[in-house]
Write a structure and sequence with these properties.
Length: 116
């Protein structure tokens, strides 16, 4: 399983279209994803204070596009990147990703239930 942070409204549109093709496909060439261990660090770095987000739980083996684990920013960590659009049927669960009162994020219990 890999995870992707997305605005809830954007996910609704993707489901209607049957495919998710974010702007990062054009700007970066891929969809940014993370592992369970990485998602909170990413969320607190890039999305602190954001509202209306959800986490897409993606079955890697069902993604039609190529997934590459790589360290493009010299962080010493390999992040999963989807090189192409995401077929929505690869998403097996969508979890609300709400902030704490200080705008930070914690891993939702639904994700822990999947992992354990």
């Amino acid at each position: 399983m890999i995870l992707h942070i997305i605005e809830g409204e954007e996910w609704i549109k993707a489901k209607e279209q049957g495919i998710y093709t974010p702007a990062s496909i054009v700007t970066d060439g891929f969809i940014h994803c993370s592992t369970t261990e990485q998602v909170i660090e990413i969320a607190n770095f890039l999305y602190k204070g954001y509202f209306g987000l959800v986490l897409l739980c993606i079955a890697s083996n069902k993604v039609n596009s190529k997934i590459v684990y790589e360290d493009l920013y010299e962080t010493g960590k390999l992040y999963p990147h989807i090189y192409g659009s995401l077929n929505v049927d690869a998403v097996f669960k969508v979890v609300e990703f709400e902030t704490n009162s200080d705008g930070s994020f914690d891993l939702p219990y639904e994700i822990n239930e999947i992992v354990t």
